[in-house]
Amino acid sequence: MPLRDVRPEFLARVTMLLERLGEHEMAVGLAGQAYYGECRCGPRCHAVLTAPPGSSSSVMIWLEDEGGIVGEVSLDADGAMITAVELAADVGEPATMEPLA
Ligand SMILES: [Zn+2]
Question: 39 CA distance to ligand 1 centroid (A)?
Fold first, then answer.
C-alpha cells in the first residue's frame, strides 16, 4: 500500500523536510514508495518502513528543521532509495532528538 495512502500527513511532513534539505529527487521518490509498517527493532523506535525490513544500510540523512534534528531517513546501501523514516515524537515542537554519536 502506498505510503501516501496510509500516512499522508507523515509523508507531507517528511517531503517538506527533504525539500528543505535540497533532496528533491528523494522527496519525489518517497511519494511513490510503499508502506511496510513500523519498525519493531525496539520500544523507542518509531521508524516507518518504506522498504522490506532489513533493507536499511548504515547510510542515512538527518532531517533538520530550524537548526534542530527532527528525524532521520535511512537509505539502502546505494544511498538511492529511502528504506525507513523516523521523526521525533514531538514534531512541530522544538527539536529534542539528539544525534547519536
Ligand atoms: Zn527501528
Answer: 4
